[in-house]
Specification:
The longest helix is centred in the middle third of the chain and has 24 residues. With about 280 residues, the protein is α+β, with helices and mostly antiparallel strands. The protein contains 13 helices and four strands. The structure holds flavin mononucleotide. The site of flavin mononucleotide (FMN) has 13 residues, from β3.
């Protein structure tokens, strides 16, 4: 990979967002608010957890919330694997390489795209399996999987717990599939750690509504650098206030220079999906 250094290949996820600064503005930032909305607007990824266990009652509740998520065409094409085996957690930590995954703190769940169950149902009924290998089926199952994961995130945060998604498990999808013993027509989409936060990071600023929202038409940027100048400054200020990381990159700099260089962004995903019988046509 010409021009890419080892440093560039490090995961792009940020390892440590420890910062003591919390906003002192307690007024609601939206015209309408309630507990759910306040929780969602206060979202921030947590990457350090205490050893306090998440109670079994909470875990059951989170799994129930995920189970009740909306699902494409009522096909329910995801499975959640809870990791309680320390050796398996260590193996997933080795794939991810991230300290919060290698650590034993927090509950780790793997959200698996799952067309296998429906393949079994169809096979038993003598129905054709070809539709399961279509890209369409893959996308629908992917939608189901992430919607379930995000519902779990919202529920966990509403209970005062911290969460971190783990796209880093995609650094080596074959090793993940082996470790979890995943059958054909499944794929490990994302991991999620839920736990008691051992840090209080600041909320990371998002692109303005005017950029990410269109009304009846796509909101095309005319001059991205100029239009995102204020946002770039905001992101630089956010990085500037963090006490453990000297990075002060702007958003446009990150997108122009880092996108696509992380290990999980370069793993042979499509090849492995095909090996799993997915997204073939
Ligand atoms: C699908 C997905 C995968 C992610 N994967 C990782 C990951 O592997 N490791 C990590 O530390 N953070 C991961 N994140 C968290 C993002 O880095 C984080 O959401 C983003 O930087 C914005 O920060 P915030 O969530 O604190 O607002 C992931 C987020 C999403 C939505």
């Amino acid at each position: 990979m010409p021009g890419i250094t080892l440093g560039d290949l490090a995961p792009l996820w940020e390892e440590s967002d420890t910062i003591a600064v919390m906003t002192t503005d307690t007024s609601d930032p939206t015209p309408v608010s309630n507990e759910t909305i306040r929780t969602q607007l206060a979202h921030r990824t947590i990457r350090a957890f205490t050893d306090e266990p998440v109670s079994e009652d909470i875990i059951t509740t989170l799994l129930e919330v995920a189970r009740h998520s909306a699902t494409t065409a009522f096909q329910q094409q995801f499975t959640i694997i809870r990791i309680t085996d320390p050796d398996l957690r260590a193996e997933i930590g080795a794939v991810s390489t991230q300290p919060h995954v290698k650590s034993t703190a927090g509950e780790l769940f793997i959200f698996v795209l799952d067309l296998h169950r429906n393949a079994q149902i169809r096979e038993q009924a003598g129905a054709d399996l070809a539709p399961l290998s279509r890209m369409n089926a893959y996308v629908h199952a992917h939608d189901d999987t992430l919607i379930a994961a995000q519902n779990m995130v919202v529920a966990a945060e509403s209970l005062g717990l911290g969460t971190v998604y783990l796209g880093s498990i995609n650094a080596d999808p074959r090793r993940m599939i082996r470790a979890l013993g995943l059958p054909k027509y499944t794929y490990p989409i994302v991991g999620l750690i839920v736990g008691h936060a051992a840090q209080t990071p600041q909320c990371k600023p998002r692109l303005p509504l005017s950029v990410t929202t269109g009304v009846n038409a796509y909101p095309e940027l005319v001059d991205p650098a100029a239009q995102l100048e204020d946002y770039d400054r905001e992101v630089q200020e956010y990085y500037g206030t963090r006490d453990t990381n000297t990075r002060v990159d702007s958003f446009t700099h990150i997108i122009a220079n880092n996108l696509g260089k992380g290990v999980a962004e370069q793993s042979p995903m499509l090849e492995v999906m095909h090996e799993q019988g997915l997204a073939l046509q």
